[in-house]
Fold this sequence. Notes:
Layout: H1 2-29, H2 40-69
Helix pairs in contact: 1-2
Amino acid sequence: xxxxxxxxxxxxxxxxxxxxxxxxxxxxxxxxxxxxxxxxxxxxxxxxxxxxxxxxxxxxxxxxxxxxxxx
Length: 71
C-alpha cells in the first residue's frame, strides 16, 4: 500500500532527524570534556554511526521484548 510506504518513509526521516539532533546535543553537552582529534566531519560521521547503531539496538530490543509477550 502506497500510503503505508509514505508513512514508513516519514517515520524513517523523523528517526534520522532525531538521531542527528541527539548527536549535536551530546556534542554540545560534552564540548568541554572532549577534544576532537580528527576532522569535524569525520567526528560527526562516527558519532552519527554510533548513535544510529544504538537506535537500531534499542528498536530490536523493543521488538524482541514485545514479541516474547505475545507468545
